[in-house]
Amino acid sequence: MPNQEHFWPNLKVFAQNNRVANLETLGLECVVCRDSFHYRGRGDDETQPPRRPRVLPCGHILCARCILAYYDTGDTRCPICRTELVHDCGHAHTGMPLPLTPGNMDKLPPILSQGGGMPRGCGPCGILGLQRLFERELNNSPYIPEELKGEYLGIGIMLYSSDEYCSREVTGPVLEIEAPTSIKHMINEIVAYAVRSQRRNQVWLEADFSSMKIRALHFKPDILSRVEESPAEQETAPNNEN
């Protein structure tokens, strides 16, 4: 077991030097609550944040539950080293998932003291901004039937191993709508930009945008008198009949 196993640079070196195939086998625990980390949802209490390990930009590793509980006190610094971890949006950084296998360990940026950077906004604020952007595009699109537009037309965003973030409260069945090609292109461009930004600028993005999936949704399909398919965004072949 490495010394200071709650510090990512040390843990990474230990795992590489000892050819650890999966960090789950080390029996790691949170340095704050001393509870064993939970992986992939095993042992989670659904009424509270999970005890899955998160790496803060300063390099310290805590469970998600302890990170959120600490931030609830109003402090935005790392509880271990006191490094300030607040975004420009005013929210504190909640860390990135602990990489478990050698192939994923280099995906984390360098820690702040070694050249890593803080993103301007937190993950939830970034998702909220994307929802507003895509909702505006949907409501302005000529390829979305007018009867679908309005207060019940929204967006669902899903990131790797997370629940879907919906821009409206889900109170029943929802109707998935085929997104226009222009919006699909916009999604691809945003994903590519986020991935490039993280790799080139070595930024600690809380959300894995490379796995982002976005759905156009209508949250009150029961009020629709008739649902039509969105017209295809392709030029109609000329009619050769004379």
UniProtKB/TrEMBL annotation:
Keywords: Metal-binding, Zinc, Zinc-finger
Natural source organism: Fusarium globosum
SUPFAM superfamilies: RING/U-box
Domain (RING-type): residue spans on this chain: 30-82
Record-given protein name: RING-type domain-containing protein
One Pfam family linked to the record: zf-RING_5
Entry annotated with the keyword Metal-binding: yes
GO molecular function, one term: zinc ion binding
InterPro entries: Znf_RING, Znf_RING/FYVE/PHD, Znf_RING_CS
Residues of the signal peptide: none
